[in-house]
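Deliverable D4.2, example record:
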Amino acid sequence: MRIPKTLVAAASTVAVLTTAACGGGTVSETPAAGGGGAATGGGSGGQYVAMVSKGFQHQFWQAVKKGAEDKAKELNVRVTFDGPASETMVDQQLQMLQEAIDKKPNAIAYAALDPQACVPLMNAAKAAKLPVVQFDAGCDGSDYPLNISKTDSKKAGALAAQHMATLMNDSGEVGVIGHSQINSTGVERRDGFLEELKAKHPNVKVVDVQYGDGDHLKSADIAKAMIAAHPGLKGLYGTNEGSAIGIVDAAQELKLPAGKVVIVGFDSGKAQIDAIKSGLMAGAITQDPIGIGKATVQSAVDAIAGKTPAKVIDTGSYWYDKSNVDDPKIAAVLYQ
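Output generated by the structure prediction step:
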């Protein structure tokens, strides 16, 4: 079943950051069309990279934006960072991509919500001779983009499954709450988890897979329904920040004792980190969103200079739990 493409017309206010190459600058408030977000930042050089993200409001995307702006300042280029309010708003994101093409930047960086719907606009970018690099999730239906900077999501999903199985003593029922059945991150984090369990942990039985669109309220309702439908459920896996927070909220609303259901999440953010430190959540997989932002801008600048960036830049994934959440190497890739 495809997630409906939703176009929201409401407007929200977001910060637009303008910074000089040496730091400092001013902050102004401007409305963003369509309920999403937009920001400019980085250096004050002549080159301009237009970034169109899968989202804007989640802390993960704010961390990607920070990495992009940090690298842009270092390289003295200007970046804009646009994204819809929700990761189900495919039509709104495509409109943002069209607007980015119309601005005729030196390069475009894109993270695809729908890997096929973006193909006509990739063709438009090609016709306009605008180099395109990708981040997080690619436009799989097009061979025009030069590269992608991302987490190896199948590997990360498998890592989540390994820890889930260990925490469940390699037996019992588990449920999965995914954030998308369309974009590659949702599909690969789900499949990596399921394939790892099937291949190496046959006594861990997946009893249900449902989708909350990355919305913590919807994910909480799904988690409560799964727990009610499967009284012996021993584990729940959420494939992104919103999914995982929804599971945590459900456990709190149901007043489940810590450890009653093993909760494994994805990404970080204050809510997940606090839940892990309290013992309510067993652990999570974190990406390096700041690293994704930096690698994306570097790839775009390389493309502008006529260089060929590496086809796939894997920025890594890491397991964290109560035992290592404060380790400097892990803390460096967490965001709050």
